[in-house]
Amino acid sequence: MISAVLALYGTAYEAYHAGGAVLSMRSPLKAHQQPHCVMMASKQVPHGGKLINLFVTDAEIAPLVASCDKTIELTDRQSCDTELLCNGAFSPLTGFMTEEEFNAVVENMRLPSGVIMGLPVVMDTFDPSIELGTKLLLAYRGTNMAVMTVTSKWTPDKALECVKAYGTATIEHPGVRMVAMERGPTYIGGPLQGIGVPTRDFPCATPAEVRDQLPDGADIVAFQCRNPIHRAHYELFTRALDAPNVGSDAVVLVHPTCGPTQEDDIPGPVRFKTYEVLQEETKDTPAGKRTRWAYLPYSMHMAGPREAIQHMIIRKNFGCTHFIIGRDMAGSKSSVSGDDFYGAFDAQDFAKANAAELGVEPVPSLNLVSTKEAGYVVAEEAQEKGYTIAKLSGTKFRQMLRAGEEIPEWFAFKSVVDVLRAEWK
Predict the structure, then answer these.
(1) What are 224-267's pLDDT values in tens digits?
(2) How many angstroms separate the CA atoms of 421 and 87, rounded?
(3) Which domains does the chain have, with CATH numbers?
(4) Which of 20, 193, 217, 346 is the most exposed place for a label (fewest CB within 10 A)?
């Protein structure tokens, strides 16, 4: 486990992928008890105009479960999609996409209604006995999550899906490999009725819960990540509050994904521990007081530009008005050659091109470097003023971590390093 942690975290100094945090809900209501109408403090309108809530009441659960024809055990990815559909993070969707919706999103990045959607949200199956009209009980690790009524069933053109959504059809891409080798040959779509949510390593607040705890009428800047947060990341998302298109009373919502990611990413429980200690360490600082934290049960596709749009839509539903776009956001490399599938600024450019329609303003991430003279500054300023840039290679960081040597605090928070060391032992 620790080899993956060290390999990925050690390159953090050069990487500027957006990185995230959590609005902790220590004692949330059960998912199916969430009110269907919540006063929303955020000024942001949900995608499609209405925040969806598919959860039924307690009284409806037993007869609903009894009406099901069969039970399906969800994969990790399917459970994340089911939860986000039920709690409204994928608004305006009310279930897994039908063939018509799937084709429209794959081809045009829009639902048939014309509403923009970055990536298809689908349910796949290996079970040929599932027919139209079948009622499926969707379960995950002992939790009944939802009931799905199948209204659409088809054999997708996976090659076309991959070329359109990921920009390539080679299994060297992790998202393509997932579609080709993990998903079943048949897709099914239809509406959901939510029953409950599983217990996860990350406590995942719903969009309604997050919105209810955001400051009224203020700009909300979202920061997405899937790795531990190092110093450069922290400087990046706190300084985003000073961007010219962000209001003076804004806060940043650090919103890490906690579902499946790339095979060599840091395991979820380890990431969660690093976020919690960092939140505690910084909560009383000026920047910490303008930071909110919440976790997202989302499975990464590593789809680059189109996934950036998907992330913006999700954070819009959580009440965010702005979204930090890091270099090569949601990008991936060939498992064979190591070449990048997307350009460093493709996601930023794509987000800017669609920002007006989405109603979410992108905030490009700063290219920050640590200097001996002035701490973190943008690289251009460091060059112009001749500052001495502090550097620590990934290899050297891993060696120092293994040897128990002190890691410079300009590079990583001590609390985060302590968590990584504990996992290593």
Answers:
(1) 988 889 898 999 999 999 999 999 999 999 999 987 766 666 77
(2) 36
(3) 2-24+202-424 (3.40.50.620), 31-194 (3.10.400.10)
(4) 217
